[in-house]
Design brief:
mainly alpha, single chain, 223 residues, 9 helices, 3-stranded antiparallel β-sheet, 71% helix
């Protein structure tokens, strides 16, 4: 055996990633029963790697394995979102505080560069571009904070949030509000004020949750 060889990505990991993207795009909407036989046939694989992939997604909270009933894409409730965003505010707030304490001048330059992408996307009303830049902005803060456990916890929770049927940036005025919040976070971090950075990040996360709640309330009222 050649100890220097790197094994290719395990089949079940590739299958898990394909299913993950189908769930995030809502091609497999929340509540959908996962037809294992159909998927195995579609991917040209046996059910063994498929079941291993589903176990991975279950550990991430993206699917739910129900005894004698099969596997379903997880449905996320308003209560779930309340609880997840509460935890997210704590975690991302801590990241922002750590970033304010640790950031070098070069780190801040990179963060400002990412923020410029937010500004450009917002000015052109490019919601998809803004969403991507928003993710990059938060990821840069996590990178500077340099706490892999915080980053892992945040990443896992963000995967579950993607199960929501709503997108907060589509609510009128939310994009502009979000941009203003990012400016405030960037300013606090640039001033290396850990307490202010934590507070503004928590407010930003809470504001995102309120926007999602408004969308859900409007859709409920329209039914």
């Amino acid at each position: 055996m050649n100890a220097g060889r790197i094994a290719p990505l395990a089949l079940y990991q590739e299958v898990a990633e394909r299913l993950r993207q189908r769930i995030f795009s809502h091609e497999l909407p929340p509540g959908t029963w996962v037809d294992e036989q159909a998927l195995a046939t579609q991917y040209g694989i046996s059910r063994t790697p498929l079941r291993e992939a589903l176990k991975v997604l279950a550990a991430e909270g993206l699917v739910t394995l129900k005894p004698r009933r099969g596997c379903y894409v997880t449905e996320i409730s308003e209560r779930d979102l309340d609880e997840i965003f509460t935890v997210m505010a704590l975690l991302e707030g801590q990241c922002a505080a750590d970033t304010a304490r640790k950031a070098s001048d070069a780190d801040l330059a990179r963060l400002r560069s990412v923020h410029e992408e937010l500004e450009r996307a917002a000015s052109s009303k490019d919601i998809d571009g803004y969403f991507e830049a928003n993710q990059a902005f938060h990821q840069e803060i996590q990178l500077i904070a340099d706490n892999r456990w915080l980053t892992q916890a945040i990443t896992d929770l963000r995967k579950v949030i993607k199960l929501s049927r709503h997108h907060s940036l589509f609510i009128e005025g939310r994009l502009e509000q979000s941009l203003a919040e990012h400016r405030t976070i960037l300013d606090a971090i640039s001033r290396r004020d850990a307490a202010l950075s934590e507070g503004t990040m928590r407010e930003h996360i809470a504001s995102g949750r309120k926007a999602l709640a408004k969308i859900a309330a409007r859709k409920e009222a329209a039914v």
